[in-house]
Amino acid sequence: MEINRRSVIRSVTGAATLATFGIAEGTAATAFAATSSSGGSTSRSASASAAYSLEFDPTAWSYDATNDVYYQVGKVYVANPAATDYENLSIYVPGAYLSATANGDGTTYTAKADPKGTVGRYSGRTAPIVIPVNTPGYAHQAPATTYSYTSVSEYLEAGLIYVWPGLRGRDSSTSTRSDAAPWGVTDLKAAVRFLRYNRSVLPGSTDDIVLFGMSGGGAQDTVAGTSGDSPLYFPYLRTIGAAMEDADGRPLSDAVAGVMAWCPITNLHEANLSYEWNMGQFASTGTRASTTWTSAYSADLAKAWPKYLNRLALRDEQGKRLELTPSSSGTYLAGSYYDHLIGVITTSLNNFLADNTFPYTITTMGGPPGSGSTGTSTTYETVDDYIAYLNSASTWVTYDATTNTATVSGLEGFVNSQKTANKPVGAFDGYSRGQGENSVFAMGLNLPSHFAPLTRDVIKANQTTYATYSDWNADYGFAAYDSDFAKKDSVGKDMTWRGEAYNPLYFLSPAFDGYRQSQVARHWRIRTGIMQGDTANTTEINLALALRNYGIRDVDFATVWAEAHTMAERTGDPTANFITWVKSVIKN
Predict the structure, then answer these.
(1) pLDDT tens-digit map of 384-399
(2) What is the DSSP string of 326-388?
């Protein structure tokens, strides 16, 4: 059936949803540790009259002779920054890519790109540029303030150029400035545009820029990777004086070539719904206890998600339409989409069995740094021991020792064993605006906002029932959502505009008006830990499906068994695997 592009983002009441973006709670594991500024809630802002040059200074290079690295730290990348202590970048270049002359001051060099200098397979003309997006919880990314070779050594030794931009985030707002979405991705796009504006004096290929990040960082690099050159960002880019044209007046692009996303927490416009369908429907404690209004809310959210999912018209690699259908027990635990999900879970388990030998020790993550929780480790002597553990509460896995393969029979057993809900009902857009994600679209410091109209529509349709529970509060009603949705940010845009800008499916799915209105990255590598309770399995699965349905041929997707919310990899080191992937897709 043909779908109107807006039909997916309309509820039964006809109100358009606002596609929004989410975060992961807690502190994300990161491979981007380096000497940096501490950031904070107070930033030094440029005055309205201040202006910075977009020209990169080729006479200001510093040089690490021990490691043969040229670098510059702290270059402001926009002409009218809102916060100069965030909106600056550093660049680190293998020495072979530059031809330099000492300036005579004992510290700086004048250098020009040497297209013939090589490191491995790359040259000063072809080297890819990699950009970290280390923004856990959609926090800011502090720029570097001093040089540290250890922070970038693996990338430079592989022949890559490393660019580290500072980015504003939900935690860098001040009493006079909100840095909430879409400013984080706006700053990222501005940094990309700055590199292209200066391509004539910088080494490397600005056609081959690759972003990488985990959790909120993986989410923001996913947004940037799907929204290349989207007009939704132009008002924001112009406000900060981003490079929109080159010196000859030709439009510049902020599209990127590739994205590496570990556990990206995306698609927040529907995440309250998918969380309850995937996990919440199998829970009965806490906010899902039968005596609470949120237990009814959980059930209604779970029922609403299949209706939304079916309108997306996702297809598998064989072109088969993926849908959910009613089931004899549970909420829509049947249909081609359900079978696809079970197939992803089964593949993940079988990859785990193929990749590892027993005895095998599984270590669970503890709490965030400083919490005192270090996690737990359990050793399983044989595969049979491990399968018995998986089936300890109910039998949902069968194992064939002859072929060393397992079969997963259903979602409920898997969730109860491996992926229990660790967030309350209203897991992302909290009914009291108390979830971390409510701050992603805040209108100012300490002003978290509702952002998800699909959630609002569920509350509006069922508010009379919820009000019969003793723990209901009128402040949780749909009017609070409508009030937040009507507010406008400093650029004059409401939540609809901001939410669409931060929703990757808005650009990838024909169900939305943004379909084919942007430049989507051509290379993708997505990894997610199957055990994470931070988001539904469907989040990354739908992202991978939508990319393939869009026509992106290079989508390397894997759900990693026995891993949670981390830089999950089937085998090997995340940084080394990322570098190997970049070299495999950008060969030059």
Answers:
(1) 999 999 999 999 999 9
(2) --SSSSS-BSHHHHHHHHHHHHHHHHHHHH--SSEEEE----STTSS----EEEESSHHHHHH
